[in-house]
Each structure stands twice: as C-alpha cells, then as structure tokens.
Amino acid sequence: MEWFPIVAVTFKFLVLGTGMFFAIKWHYDQGKKGREKERREVLRAAGKIAAIFLVLCVVLVFGTLFIARKLGMDLNLS
Fold first, then answer.
1. How far apart are CA 32 and CA 16, in angstroms?
2. Where are the domains of the chain?
3. Alpha-carbon gap, residue 55 to 68, rounded angstroms
4. Each residue of 69-78: pLDDT tens digit?
5. Helices then strands (H, E): number in the chain?
6. SS3 readout for 2-71
7. Which end of the chain is more exposed for a tag (fewer CB within 10 A), N or C?
8. Alpha-carbon Rg for the chain in angstroms
C-alpha cells in the first residue's frame, strides 16, 4: 500500500503535464492563425481613433476662438 501514493502522484503529474503542454500549444497555434487579421483590425481602429482625435482637436481650437471672440477677448499675438 505504500507504493500507491508514488504511482498516483507520478500519474497525476504526467497527465497534468501533458494537458498543460497541449493547452499551451493549442493557444499558441490559435494566436498565430489569427494574427494577420488581428493586426489589420488594430491598425484600422488606431486610424479611426487618430482621425477622431484630429477632428476633436480642430473643433476645440475653433470653438475656443469662437467663444473668445464672442466674449470680446483680444487674441492678437502682437
């Protein structure tokens, strides 16, 4: 009976080790498969965010100038 824990623990480590190996391999293969499509989607999203940021900056500048002129502020640099 004293040999059972040794066999059970060894079997457990072999089964869990094999399962972890195949789980990591499967996730790695899935990551390689969709990488090109994912890169394209990330670049498209980054482009949209940059365009929105640029439009908001222009709106902020012109909005600030409009409000400043309505309030009668002098915006001349000289």
1. 24
2. 1-31
3. 20
4. 899 888 777 6
5. 2, 0
6. CCHHHHHHHHHHHHHHHHHHHHHHHHHHHHHHCHHHHHHHHHHHHHHHHHHHHHHHHHHHHHHHHHHHHC
7. C
8. 31
